[in-house]
Thioredoxin reductase (Sulfobacillus acidophilus), 314 residues
Amino acid sequence: MSEHVIIIGTGPAGYTAAIYAARANLNPLVIEGDEPGGQLMLTTEVENFPGFPDAILGPDLMEAMKKQAQRFGARFVYGQAESVDLSQRPFRVFIADGTQYQADSLIISTGASAKLLEIPGEADLIGHGVSTCATCDGFFFTNKRIIVVGGGDSAMEEATFLTRYASEVTIVHRRDTLRASKVMQDRARNNPKIKWVMDATPLEVLGSNHRVTGLKIRHNQSAQVEVLSTEGLFVSIGHRPNTDFLKGQVQTTAIGYLVTNPETTETNIPGVFACGDVADSRYRQAITAAGTGCRAAMDVERWLESQKHVENPV
Ligand code: NAP
């Protein structure tokens, strides 16, 4: 059986696409992925999603979006899309457990994963002092000392942003030269609240009672190990868009983000649409992802109608 539309990936983009597609009677099938709910499942309080004046927990927001989509008939299957065949329609989606689905159109909303340091203590303290999103979590560190790890534009931008809240921000970078563009470096260097620890490798995140207390580092030249006291650690070492499973069948940027046609969510493959962080290296916010999810569902609806595949156009 061929579906009208399959949505691959759940996060604000996928869930919103599911709500809109379901309300348009497209009876969407949603492939949830190995980490249903996406990056927001790793955060605690979300204070910048409109409509929640007292904040909402990231997992609760995702659960509510899923329920809202189910209420209109969206169907969810657990599983990770391992590969796709986009060479002809219906498109085929292959799940890791061997299941195969077919659809006339696809919405790809597999997100991007923040890269992590993968050092001891980090995973345990995510959402409890370790964060990968300054915009989301900076406010929680008002008048506190923070460390930002990374030497790229994101690290400079996040460190500079975090000085609005923190009493002091220390950038820890693994080399003695930064990767960031000159303008971003200069902005950070001219900020009196930013301190620098260059050419040092993070070894372990220290914490107790669900709170970060320090970052253990090794100075690369001297091999000396030091503990930097901190109440927050922002890991800003880049994101990885989750596009490997497409195996080059959809156009991406050099670092793997899906490319959409200007003003729409269409990819270079007719019938394949992209929304959320998998196609957005710039904003990466829950609300922007949700907005593009809405756009993708509306684009799909119009595209299916143009193909005369919709049985009951709304
Ligand atoms: P990025 O340019 O890839 O930089 C990642 C940084 O993290 C690098 O300094 C890297 O060190 C470091 N790093 C990577 N893995 C690490 C590890 N395991 N341990 C310690 N450090 C590690 O990523 P990004 O800063 O997120 O930027 C991504 C793209 O977005 C870039 O093209 C950037 O220009 C763009 N961007 C632009 C703006 C802006 O213009 N406003 C803002 C943000 C991002 P090495 O340098 O040693 O490799």
Observations:
- The chain has a mean pLDDT of 94.
